[in-house]
Amino acid sequence: MQNGKTLGEPLLEAREISLSFGGVKALRGVSLAIRRHEILAIIGPNGAGKTSMLNVVNGFYHPQQGTITFKGETRRAMRPHQAAAQGIARTFQNVALFKGMTTLDNIMTGRLLRMKRGLLWQALYWGPAEREELAHREAVEKIIDFLEIQAIRKIPVGRLPYGLQKRVELGRALAMEPELLLLDEPMAGMNVEEKEDMCRFILDVNDEFGTTIALIEHDMGVVMDISDRVAVLDYGRKIADGPPDAVRADQAVIDAYLGVSHG
Amino acid sequence: MLYREAGQFKTSYAADQAIFTIPQDRAAFWILLALGFIAIPLVASEYVLLTIMIPFLVFALAAIGLNILTGYAGQLSLGTGGFMAVGAFTAYKLTTALPGLDIVFVFLLSGLVAAAVGIVFGLPSLRIKGFYLAVATLAAQFFLIWLFNKLPWFSNYSPSGVIGAPPRAALGLVTVTGAEASPVAKYLFTLAFVAILALAAKNLVRGRFGRSWMAIRDMDIAAEIIGIRPLNAKLSAFAVSSFYVGIAGALWAFIYTGGVEALAFDIDRSFQILFMIIIGGLGSILGSFLGAAFITLLPILLDRGGEALGLPVPVNVLTNLEDMIFGGLIILFLIAEPRGLARLWQIGKEKLRLWPFPH
Question: Best residue in A88, A98, A115, A168 to probe B by mutation, most B CBs within 10 Å?
Fold first, then answer.
């Protein structure tokens, strides 16, 4: 394996997933495994079903057919908040932050599932409630340090530039301490330096926290550099799956990207 | 040390999470509290206490309640009056059925009943949003007022439908309701109630609950992926909001007016409180107070202003003129600063960070 990393057992296994919206078949019998500690890149031309696949894993879409096994538990469908409780976090293609809240509050929302004190304690903000809040603040500050966004802590995210918003969104996902992190085009619309920063963060997250990562990305340079494995979707089908070099040489993948005459 | 955020360093997260992070703000807060609890009762006339301070405080409490729901959780509600009525009538039924129950507990229980009613009428929010939800809450408003008007049981079969506050003591110490209660006692009781509940609201909105409400407000899809259950977040907002609004209704009926009929809580009341939070600032506890002050004080100031100028206009024209100026000011205000007085305050603070340097 790349980087000499040993990849573990499958953390998540999707089997024969089929999803359609009316007559449009977004996914047709896709099977995909995500192994512990790996960085899996999902690539494919526009409309190939990449985001649909993430949405199925995340519980946004409920597939008509197929099952998903996560941490040994098999399911057909669940709600996004249940996926979150099981340890799946994600970011969106177009940033989905809470625009009216500060960077700090946005990342603090990632800790909500871990905060347990009830309404009365919260209203008093005293004793256990205060200790809980401060403990989580400390955890969040570690993420803020890690992502190097100390300076924008108290700024409402609606006022931040796009690249920083993407970083805050990653921070919010990290605050959940997920086992599986889904990133939908984390580098879309970024310049080269921002992309380099983001790549570094993704690799560090994978390396330091051991988080399993599945990401969708269009920048092939980035994909080939950082991923351990690449899965290629085209017209809702998986056409290739393997190490980056093998996928790059795959004839079906070349055909999908460059087009081929079906004559 | 200047009054500004820059250059005031904190050495612990606790200090950074405090409500007032600027020492001058803290000082101003304690001075204001001392003014409210000590100076005003000593110097203010009965008129000021009963017709300005008490309604201002009650309105502020109702505005906090609506602000939690609309400003923080983003659920537009036009049912505020209805929920106030629930609080008022519950307090009346409770205190007449159980005369021994202390009025503090009566008010708190009325808030809880209002919260339960709020949850029921909040259920549509799980399916509908925005203006459609506003219409659903409008249904709550009309239904509740109709109910209290139609069923004489709620007003203990009083022929006029008016509920009169019987004399009751707070914590067994001093009578705060009924005709014999002194204005100072009424005022201090209301102030204490509102101050404690406002602090609790501030604590809620800066903690876990506030964050989940704001998350639902700003982007409900993203809120769901970080594990917030829309059901819990929306219904808790309705419950807490109605709790505050219900207590405000009970205070209105028992302390401010002393006797009230259901129509005092009609749709006009709902709009009045909505205006307060829009003018004061959506999503701000301070804004709730500023908005309540603006709406209660402005008509009085206009009235006094007219008198002071000695305008030779007939009284009925003057009343209409006041309404026109009032409406004009509100429109002007919304154009100039749609995010309210609290936002103006915040802009001022941000300017002060760098002042007197331009960059």
Answer: A98
